[in-house]
Structures are given as structure tokens and as C-alpha cells.
Design a protein that fits this description.
single chain; 232 residues; alpha+beta; Glutaredoxin; Glutathione S-transferase Yfyf (Class Pi), Chain A, domain 2; 59% helix; binds glutathione
Length: 232
């Protein structure tokens, strides 16, 4: 029997907030695969598994260790082909890759401009210095200065960034079409990231179609996403 263990980062309150790890959590549920989750902090990542890991999601599936949400999704689809398909075939996989890149390179970079300080404020104590130093290096300025300059321009972009999602959900219930697919879990990861660290209402930038989709996605798998504590 297969044993699956995931590693996921949490806030000080224990809420799993990584957008990429939520992609994996939802994919495992979609496949009907039970797993144990070890909740860690950013600063624990170098000490997990083989000591070579730099990110979550990281999963152990029997003897194999995998990192990166897209690589994990491909592995789950191939290795557990008897479970419900994540992609619905090769074309669905190709289209989901587009959504993966849209989320990673268009949506998430705008969202981080709004919620960066919220993330920092929710972190476990042991992660705070690391997070501040690594993100200040990445953005080339203090966290507070970054958000002060970037949050409002990002909000002005978000309606446009979400528009392809809005237009799609105006004519079909899921990004996957008639049923949820991995494409939905990619987008969901972003909304769950926001929901667990911030009171920022990202769904309002997509209006009713996105709000209805988010509610339905939070209800999937006996309310798996909804069970995670929302920030207040
Ligand atoms: N391309 C990766 C990105 C994963 C990623 O960036 N994970 C973040 C958390 S959301 C992380 O683990 N960062 C480690 C760090 O900043 O030290 C994926 O899709 O899984």
C-alpha cells in the first residue's frame, strides 16, 4: 500500500497558507489519496527529507521525494491513473500548464504586492527574520516600503488579471469545464493563500462568477479548503 506524506508551511495559528502546497493538497483529495501532513515553517525546509529541499510542496510517496507542485501533479496523474483524472487527458494537461503559468507569473505577483505584510504578520516567530531578509533581498527594499508603493497599483491591475477567469466562469462552472480539474486547484491555491493570511477580498475583483466558483471550490471534498482557518 502506498504511503504519502506531505510537508506544508503554516502560520503561527497553524493554517496552511502556501498557494503551491494547496494545489497539491487539492490534487491528492481529487485522486482520493489519504496522506499525512507534517506542518513546518519556512526555516524547517532545509531539514526535511534528504536535506536538499528548498520549497514546499514537498511530498514523499513511498521511497520517492518530489518537490514542485506541477511535478507532483504530473506524478500523481501518472502513478495513480486509476483515480479520477486531474487533467482529463493530454490536451487538458497542456491547458492546465497555461493556467499554472498564468497563476505563477500574472496573478500571484500582483497578489503578493497586496498581502506581503499580512503574510509576515501571520508567520511563526521562527520564520520572521528569514522571511523579512529573503523577501527584502528579492524586492530590493523593506517589506513596508514595498507594500506601501505596490499595493494600490496591484489592486488596479487585479480586475484585468482575473478577467480571463471571470469570462471562463461566466460560461462554465469550473475551469476544468463541467467538473473541477487541476486547473481549478491551481487558481484555488491563490485564493486560499489570501484567505488564510489576509482579509483582502480577492474574489471581489472577479465579481459574482469568481465568488460562486470560490464558494463551490471551498465546499469540495467535504469542505477541505473551508476547514482551514481564515484570517480575521
Ligand atoms: N514552482 C514551485 C514554487 C513553490 C514555492 O515557491 N514555494 C514557496 C512557498 S509558497 C516556498 O517553499 N518557498 C521557500 C522559501 O521562500 O524559502 C511550485 O509550483 O511548487
Amino acid at each position: 500500500m502506498t504511503t504519502i506524506k506531505t510537508y506544508d508551511i503554516t502560520t503561527a495559528e497553524g493554517a496552511r497558507f502556501s498557494p503551491h502546497a494547496w494545489r497539491t493538497t487539492m490534487a491528492l483529495a481529487h485522486k482520493g489519496l489519504d496522506h499525512e501532513c507534517e506542518k513546518i515553517g519556512f526555516t524547517d525546509i532545509p531539514g526535511i527529507c534528504d536535506g536538499a529541499r528548498k520549497i514546499v510542496p514537498t511530498v514523499e510517496i513511498d521511497e520517492a521525494v518530489l518537490s514542485d507542485s506541477w511535478a507532483i501533479a504530473l506524478h500523481l496523474e501518472e502513478s495513480f491513473s486509476e483515480g479520477p483524472s486531474l487533467f482529463g487527458g493530454e490536451k487538458g494537461k497542456a491547458h492546465a500548464l497555461f493556467i499554472n503559468n498564468w497563476a505563477s507569473f500574472s496573478l500571484n505577483p500582483q497578489v503578493i504586492r497586496v498581502i506581503l505584510l499580512d503574510i509576515y504578520n501571520q508567520l511563526q516567530d521562527k520564520d520572521r527574520d528569514y522571511f523579512r531578509a529573503s523577501r527584502e533581498k528579492r524586492f530590493g527594499m523593506g517589506l513596508e516600503d514595498f507594500v506601501a508603493g505596490a499595493a494600490e497599483p496591484a489592486k488596479a491591475q487585479l480586475k484585468g488579471v482575473l478577467l480571463p477567469m471571470v469570462k471562463t466562469l461566466e460560461t462554465q462552472q469550473w475551469l476544468g469545464g463541467r467538473v473541477p480539474s487541476y486547473a481549478d486547484y491551481i487558481a484555488f491555491g491563490t485564493f486560499q493563500w489570501v484567505r488564510t493570511v489576509s482579509t483582502f477580498d480577492l474574489a471581489s475583483y472577479g465579481g459574482e462568477p469568481v465568488q460562486a466558483w470560490l464558494d463551490a471550490t471551498l465546499d469540495l471534498f467535504d469542505g477541505l479548503g473551508r476547514k482551514e482557518r481564515a484570517a480575521s
